[in-house]
Amino acid sequence: MTKTIAITGGIGSGKSTFCSELKEKGFKVHSSDEQVAKIYKNPDKKFVTYLRTIGLSKSISKKNIDKKIISKIIFENKQIRKKLELYIFKIVRKKRSDFIKQEKQKKTRLIFIDIPLLFENNLEKQFHKVISIIASKGVRLKRLKKTRKMSENQFKNITRSQISDVIRKKKSDYVIYNNSTLKDYKIKINKLISKLYLKQ
């Protein structure tokens, strides 16, 4: 039987690093963030038209989409944000479903699904186990300032729309704390991967 493991956590907590470690070890991983990035990188006509329809025309320049403009608008306008999220989530959900179906047909023993808004969208019951990655807001903000040039205000706007780590802990089967060094974090990741694999 194929076991599905969901990975979640707040922005900047270390989900991408976790997924990279999994891929390096040969595990099958589906990342919601990667799917969203593909939608923006190669937008089809339908998506571009939809952005114009919901009030995001300013973000479109020829065939390119400026995500910074979108971020600014959607965190000031909840209605536009919800409309955009519904559209994107529908595409990502279909890609995720296809991925799980494909791996089940291959009889893959263990697959990992990275879903940042897992609990916010009440998706946790769809998976056998849930891993939450926890890091303090201060640590996360410091990382995001360095990697994404994110401002404190942007960070606050994003974290406002995400559930607290207290709730994540309660709802998860496994929790990894990522407040220290990358080396320490990778040791924790590998210990958990071994534990999960041995249980199969």
What does this structure look like?
The chain is α/β, with parallel strands linked by helices. The chain has one domain: P-loop containing nucleotide triphosphate hydrolases (Rossmann fold, 3-Layer(aba) Sandwich). It is built from nine helices and seven strands; from the N terminus they run E-H-E-H-H-E-E-H-H-E-E-H-H-H-E-H. It has helices spanning 15-24, 32-41, 45-53, 67-74, 78-105, 137-147, 152-160, 165-171, 182-198; strands at residues 3-9, 28-31, 60-61, 64-65, 110-114, 129-134, 174-177. The strands form two sheets. The protein has a five-stranded parallel beta sheet with strand order 2-5-1-6-7, with helices on both faces. Strands 3-4 form a two-stranded antiparallel sheet. Helix 1 (15-24) packs across helix 9 (182-198) and helix 2 (32-41) packs across helix 5 (78-105). The longest helix is centred in the middle third of the chain and has 28 residues, at 78-105. It is globular, with a radius of gyration of 17 Å. The chain starts with a strand and ends with a helix.
